[in-house]
Amino acid sequence: MEEEKRRQQEHKQRAEQFRNNARQARQDTSQRKHHWTLEALEKKIYQLEDEISRLSVEMGQPELYQDPDKAQKLQVRFQGLQGECQQLTGLWEEMVS
C-alpha cells in the first residue's frame, strides 16, 4: 500500500513538472519573438546557413579526418549551428504566420 501511494505521488510530481516545463516553454517562445525583428532574424538565419554550408564543404575533405579531434569539434559545431538554425527558422515561421 505504501509503495502504491509513493508511485502515485511520484506520478503527480512528474505530471506537475511536465506542466511547468510546457508553461515555461510557451513563455520562452513568447519572449524570443519580442527579442527579434523579422529582418534581424532573417539575417541571422542566412548567416547560419552560410556557415553550415561552409562547414559542410570542410567536412567533406578527407584530410580533415586525419585529425580526429578537429573533425569531432567541427561535427559538434555543425550540429549546434543546424539546431540553432532550425529553432530560428521555426520562430521565423511563427512570426510570419
List the helices and strands and how they pair.
Blueprint: H1 2-35, H2 38-59, H3 68-96
Query: How can the largest sheet be summarized?
Result: none
> In total, how many beta strands?
0
Large-scale geometry: flat
Let me know the average pLDDT.
85
Nearest-angstrom radius of gyration?
Answer: 21 Å
User: Would you list the SSEs in sequence order as H and E?
Assistant: HHH
Give the oligomeric state of the chains in this entry, treating copies of one chain as homo and distinct chains as hetero: single chain
Total count of helical runs of at least 4 residues = 3
What proportion of the residues is helical, as a percent range?
over 70%
The structure class reads mainly alpha
How many domains make up the 3D coordinates? 2
Distance between the termini: 52 Å
Tell me what portion of residues adopts beta-strand conformation: under 5%
Uncertain segments of ≥5 residues (pLDDT<50)? Answer: none
Question: If you had to describe this structure to a student in words, what would you say it looks like?
Answer:
- This protein has 97 residues and is mostly helical.
- The chain has two domains: 1-35; 36-97.
- Helices cover 88% and strands 0% of the residues.
- It has three helices and no strands.
- The chain has helices at 2-35, 38-59, 68-96.
- α2 packs antiparallel against α3.
- The longest helix has 34 residues, at 2-35.
- The relative contact order is 0.11.
- The model has no long low-confidence stretch (mean pLDDT 85).
